Amino acid sequence: MFEIVKREFIYIWYYFSVQFNQIFIYWLVGMVIGSVISVFFKDKIHGLMRNMKGDGSSLLGIFFASVLGVASPLCMYGTIPIAASFSKGGIRDEWLASFMMSSILLNPQLIIYSAALGVKVLLVRIVSCFLCGIAAGLLIRIFYKEKHFFRFDGFDEPKNRDTDPNLFLRLLKNIFRNFKATGLYFFIGILLSAIFQRYVPQEALAFMFGGNKAWGVLMASTVGVPLYVCGGGTIPILKTWLANGMSLGSAAAFMITGPATKITNLGALKVVLGIKHFLFYWGFVILYACVSGVLINIIGI
């Protein structure tokens, strides 16, 4: 019995170490770059959003807001309060929807993480998340042009924790907070990927997520809801799945539904949206993920 446990531990450790060596540098660089943007550029990015004029082009504003959402270093917890302050400043709901959607799905740190999956997957993630922000803004513009979609009552602008007068210490403190927020999930993700490699047959993963079938995309969209906890933690898992037959369309669907329906954040979204709009949001995310995933597989990227 002891020999069996020892053998399995060696196997798991081997897979873990291989994944760690392949991904660690992306996590480390992403964490540092994310902190640099948060400390030195966050206010400038959000300032551009605040300066968008209410009488400007709505369509151009949707595009610009989605770009700023991707560039923003905030996670959903930070995105909602800052969006509340934008709303109080007169920013249109369709611009807020575009900014919030793309910001929830992607940020500079996660872009660096995702580079570990290869250039093709990285580009698909960036483009699909950016277009998701635009699609959200367009839907609000079409269906909620004369009424408010969001309810930001009770949300104040998040307190800025990057206030140390010493810029170097300010950056170090942000990196440390970043490490505490993502480190555990990063290591858990590598451990789970090692377990998948050891105990889940490649044929099973290829059956669930592979090929150009809509079934694989639907499965990835569904699995993304309960499994996604932290972006850094899912990169090792996605790397393993892609290596074992997951289609690019299924990966794209997972990368959309995962962050958009992260369990820890849905409570805050429900407060902001209300039950009716919350269901609208949920349906939009699942539908967009499935459609984009199927199209990516059909195109054969």
Query: What is the string of SSEs from the N terminus onward?
Result: HHHHHHHHHHHHH
How confident overall, as mean pLDDT? 85
So what's the oligomer here? single chain
Number of strands: 0
Globular, elongated, flat, extended or rod-shaped: what is the shape?
A: globular
What is the share of helical residues? Answer: over 70%
Distance between the termini: 47 Å
Helix-strand category: mainly alpha
- What characterizes the major β-sheet? none
> What percent of residues are in strands?
under 5%
Computed CA radius of gyration, to the nearest angstrom = 20 Å
- When the domains are counted, the total is 1
Low-confidence stretches: none
Count of discrete alpha- or pi-helical segments spanning 4 or more residues: 13
Folded structure, characterized:
Helix 3 crosses helix 7 (119-143). 79% of the residues lie in helices and 0% in strands. It is built from 13 helices and no strands. It has one domain (2-151, 172-299). The mean pLDDT is 85. The longest helix has 39 residues, at 2-40. The protein is mainly alpha-helical. The protein is globular and about 65 Å long.
List keywords for this structure.
301 residues; mainly alpha; globular
In short:
The chain has 301 residues and is mostly helical.
Give the arrangement of secondary structure elements.
Blueprint: H1 2-40, H2 42-50, H3 58-71, H4 76-88, H5 93-105, H6 108-114, H7 119-143, H8 167-199, H9 202-209, H10 214-227, H11 231-243, H12 248-260, H13 263-299
